[in-house]
Every structure is written in C-alpha cells, then in structure tokens.
Design goal:
By secondary structure, this protein is an alpha+beta fold. It is about 35% helix and about 20% strand. The chain has a single domain, classed as Winged helix-like DNA-binding domain superfamily/Winged helix DNA-binding domain (Arc Repressor Mutant, subunit A, Orthogonal Bundle), CATH 1.10.10.10. It has 5 helices and 6 strands. Strands 1-3-2 form a 3-stranded antiparallel beta sheet. A 3-stranded mixed beta sheet has the order 5-4-6, with no helix packed on it. The longest helix has 13 residues.
C-alpha cells in the first residue's frame, strides 16, 4: 500500500492522521503475516512501545487491525482491510505452524458463522488452526 491508500484507509475508519499512525499502518501493510509487539518494535524503532501499543488499541477499536493469539501466549496484529469502522468484513482463518512457530493468514477462508445461544453477544473472533505448514510438513516427511 502506498501512503495515499494508507491515509484513505485511516480516514475511512475514522482515525485522525498523525505521522506515527501512518507509519504504524504502513509497517503493518508491508508485513506478510501477523506480527507481535516485539516484532513491530524492532521494525519501528522511531516510536516507543507505549505509543505503538496505544495506536494498535485505537486501530483495533476502529476495526483497522485484527488482534489474535497464536496459541503461545503471544498476541499478534495484522492490518484489517474492512471497508468501514463499524463492521469487520475481513475476518479470516489463521494457521499456526507448531514446528516453525509462524502464523499464516488464510485470507480466502472466512471464519464460519457461529450461532450463539440467546444472551451471548460476540465481540470478536479468533479462529486459529494449528499443525504443520507446507514447508515443515515436507521436511518432516522427507526425514522419515
């Protein structure tokens, strides 16, 4: 994504433009998989940890990032490409490789609809499938 697209995405989600917000959104848009705070800090060395965290929280409140747990007590973030701040229409399945510990976005696989019992209200979905990614699976079977 270029800066114009990032700025438009922020505006669409009702987020006021600042240099830090644009930089964090640009960094997220350039990643090929969800990233942890530690990984984002390493990539964005000009913004301190608390500002990155506050910005990610703001983005989450406006449906601009997905926040997911990968199963190893690590929270990861990825840019959400939903078209508005009211509803997240970019919810998809994620895959966590238990061997290489990499989290993959399976963008073409939507999270199945869950019909909750009366009285329950959904606020978010974290759909994580665990196993071996194709590379690790191939290496595992080659060793056998």
């Amino acid at each position: 994504m270029n800066d114009k697209q990032i700025e438009q995405l922020l505006k669409t989600h009702g987020i006021r433009l600042t240099a830090n917000r644009i930089l964090i959104a640009r960094t997220l848009s350039g990643l090929d998989s969800p990233s942890s705070m530690k990984e984002l800090e390493a990539k964005i060395q000009t913004i301190d940890k608390s500002n990155i965290f506050r910005t990610l929280s703001l983005f989450k409140d406006h449906h601009l990032v997905h926040q997911l747990e990968d199963g190893n007590d690590v929270v990861r973030y990825e840019l959400c490409l939903s078209r508005n701040a009211e509803e997240d229409d970019d919810i998809h399945v994620h895959f966590y490789c238990e061997r290489c510990q990499h989290t993959f976005c399976l963008n073409d696989i939507p999270v199945p609809q869950v019909n909750l019992p009366v009285g329950y209200e959904q606020s978010s979905v974290n759909y994580m499938v665990k196993g071996l990614c194709p590379d690790c699976s191939r290496r595992y079977y080659l060793k056998r």
